[in-house]
Amino acid sequence: MPHPFPHPKVWAHRGARSAAPENTMAAARAALAQGAFGWELDVRLTLDGAVVVAHDQGLRRVTDIARRPGLPGRGDHLADRLTLAQVRSLDAGSWFARRDPFGTVAAGEVQPQELAAFAGERIPTLAEALEWTRDAGLSVNVEIKDMLGGDDGLLVRETVRLIRDSGLGGDKVLVSSFRRASLVLFRELCPEIPVGLLLDDKATAAPVADILAGLRDLGAAALHPCVRTLASGRATAFREAGFDVNVYTVNRPEDMLRLAAEGAAGIITDFPARALAVLGAKKMDEMD
């Protein structure tokens, strides 16, 4: 029997971060190579107000800042306490081979020449990431992070400016955040770009009616719930209420198949090629 709705779009989480260092252009290129529909990235401000692509406020996990004596001390190893020039001076790629976060290096899924090329990878600016996305023909999900006491308003305003400067429209850009106030401001400043509300584990498990009320009040186009606490059938309920459901972080084949069956609009995964293979096999089975 034909599937009642299209299979989910596959979004590469922080780029294809199982194959390359997260939130770098190498991870974006890996997402493209693996056939992803688009890539998800995170944005923060530097000390001098530049928008950079980084998930953590602290930069020690994914850069060599701890081994850079010429930079500020440990307490200032934060994106918003460093200038753009300082952030861009960091090596954001060499750690991947050493830490092998998904076991793909040990499994031989990432080739030695690729690992060597990651050395010296830089933290991208949002402008650089958007320009590449436009030229590559991918879509992008820009997650606006919480500045944790910093200037959230400036981050939103600069994100609006950079998206508009990129020439990417609402068919190619989706903006998401856990921080409702940031999405409210973004909607006020840039109504032409759709927004998606991110929910953490606890918020994903809240009553469906409460979540729907929040989405309508926000004017969101999409909901981005956490797969760990998204109970069976809830994706269908949100879809039937008129919202796209893009679920994170979906790495297990059984979750990919369940969400496809429930009509999720997208899955956000660290393994885009795996997701496409699982969904492609399911599609072939349906055609038999």
The largest sheet, given as strand count, sense and whether it forms a barrel, is: 8 strands, parallel, barrel
Count of helical stretches: 12
- Specify the overall morphology: globular
Poorly predicted tracts of residues: none
Give Rg in angstroms.
Answer: 19 Å
Helix content bin: 25-40%
Helix/strand class: alpha/beta
Q: For the largest sheet, list the strands in their spatial order.
A: 1-2-4-5-6-7-8-9
Beta content comes to 5-15%
Number of separate strands: 9
Helix-strand blueprint:
Layout: E1 9-13, H1 25-33, E2 38-45, E3 51-53, H2 84-88, H3 95-99, H4 112-118, H5 126-136, E4 139-144, H6 152-166, E5 173-177, H7 180-189, E6 195-198, H8 201-204, H9 208-218, E7 222-224, H10 234-240, E8 244-247, H11 253-261, E9 266-269, H12 272-287
Parallel strand pairs: 1-2, 1-9, 2-4, 4-5, 5-6, 6-7, 7-8, 8-9
Antiparallel strand pairs: 2-3
Helix pairs in contact: 5-6, 6-7, 11-12
Structural features:
288 residues; alpha/beta; 12 helices
Describe it.
By secondary structure, the chain is of the alpha/beta class. It contains twelve helices and nine strands. An eight-stranded parallel beta barrel has the order 1-2-4-5-6-7-8-9, surrounded by six helices. Strand 7 (222-224), helix 10 and strand 8 (244-247) form a beta-alpha-beta unit. Helix 11 packs across helix 12. The longest helix has 16 residues, at 272-287.
